[in-house]
Design goal:
The chain is globular. It is built from 16 helices and no strands. It has one domain: Growth Hormone, Chain: A, CATH 1.20.1250.20. Helix 1 packs antiparallel against helix 6 and helix 7 packs antiparallel against helix 12. It is 84% helix and 0% strand. The protein is mostly helical and 399 residues long.
Length: 399
């Protein structure tokens, strides 16, 4: 890869850092909403669940559009829409306002300039280093956690959460739109099939309807669904769990930053390793680490232990990056032809559906039982199912 390739990857990573910094900062906004409105935990979690679900529903559309139009145009439009929607969030008064302005409008905006269009553009541009390239751009999401989340917490403490959303509105406008214009001018035309060597020629040329008829497709969607369900349950509830157990909000926000920092390492190293060894093995190893992290989180809360909280953050950062960075490359290995955008979009919808259901179910379990024990068991079970699906994907590709 030359300097222009790295510049393109850097700019895509910057957009993802901002867009998904908003996603992962919901855990600190949740605490602020709780203090302001005193809504139930399931209602607060529903705000994120609707966001994740709408984001997932629009992913197939935005990814499919990238098979037809310049994806840089979507980034420009997404940057403009994120700015407007965040401004609208700053005026919310009721749960319906939260669900509409954050859960629907912001989610659609993030989808337009987020993960789907970025993956399609990277998949078209990089042949021999796809795992590393995906890991590089997805590490931008980790940067968003490292920088955006604690800065947002500081902004909330200093100016209040309403003004914080207004500041974010301005920042996204002045950064994402110019990057989108650059990507529009440097868009790689042509189909995915012209730029990749396929690891599974039997399925790489399939269109979406043909892929629906294969077991591998549904295993990959299930892998995404259950992996995201477990990981996003932890992302949404980690801060409020630790704060309720006696750890300060700023330390809780710092935990999210460590998750992001660890995820940068996990995505870069995991992406590199996935180009050298079987991607499925890297995915399985990462999710085993994630399961270990859940147990560490439980004991961190029970003992109000800051060191254990940061150990959990490292496990979550490394572990969840397996689903975030490796799963798209696995899909490309099996369905990387000219219909990759459409097929990827369905996979991302599976992941977003899991991300929507997991935090909401965890919130319901907390409201029903007054603690997070069953929610953590639920997260472990979800990740175990994802591991099973990945194992079957690996075994089936040799048949």
């Amino acid at each position: 890869m030359d300097k222009n390739d790295y510049l393109k990857l850097f700019l895509i990573a910057t957009v993802l850092a901002l867009a998904y910094g908003i996603w992962y900062s919901y855990s600190v906004f949740l605490v602020a909403f709780d203090e302001t409105f005193n809504w139930s935990r399931s209602t607060l979690a529903a705000g994120f669940s609707i966001f994740a679900l709408v984001h997932g529903i629009t992913n197939p559309v935005s990814s499919a559009l990238c098979d037809r139009i310049n994806s840089g145009i979507l980034v420009v439009a997404g940057g403009f829409c994120i700015s407007i929607s965040l401004l609208m969030v700053s005026f919310i008064r009721t749960p319906f306002d939260l669900f509409l302005f954050f859960g629907v409008f912001t989610a659609i905006s993030v989808s337009m300039c987020g993960w789907g269009p970025s993956l399609v553009q990277v998949q078209r541009s990089f042949k021999d280093n796809l795992g590393f390239a995906i890991g590089f751009v997805s590490s931008g999401i980790g940067v968003g956690m490292v920088l955006a989340v604690p800065l947002i917490q500081l902004c909330i403490d200093t100016f209040g959460w309403r003004n914080c959303f207004r500041i974010l509105s301005v920042v996204t406008f002045i950064i994402i739109i110019p990057i989108g214009l650059f990507l529009t001018k440097n868009f790689v035309a042509g189909l995915s099939s012209q730029s990749l060597n396929y690891k599974n020629p039997k399925t790489s040329s399939l269109n979406l309807s043909q892929a629906f008829k294969t077991g591998q497709f549904w295993l990959l969607v299930s892998l995404y669904f259950f992996g995201s369900m477990g990981a996003q349950t932890l992302h949404v509830h980690q801060v409020v769990y630790l704060v309720e157990k006696g750890i300060s909000p700023i330390v809780g926000a710092s935990v999210v930053s460590v998750v992001g920092l660890s995820s940068i390492f996990g995505k870069l190293v995991g992406g590199y390793l996935s180009d050298k060894v079987e991607r499925e093995k890297v995915f399985i190893a990462g999710n085993i680490i994630l399961i270990c992290g859940i147990f560490v989180l439980y004991f961190a809360g029970e003992n109000a232990s800051v060191p254990l909280a940061f150990i959990f953050a490292i496990c979550l950062g490394i572990g969840y990056s397996s689903t975030a960075a490796i799963a798209p490359a696995i899909i490309s290995d099996h369905f990387g032809g000219k219909h990759f955008g459409k097929i990827l979009g369905i996979g991302l919808f599976g992941g977003a559906s899991g991300a929507a259901i997991g935090p909401f179910v965890a919130g319901e379990l907390f409201d029903s039982f007054g603690n997070y024990k069953l929610a953590f068991i639920f997260a472990v079970a979800s990740i175990l199912i994802a591991l099973l699906c990945c194992t079957l994907v690996r075994l089936n590709k040799y048949k």
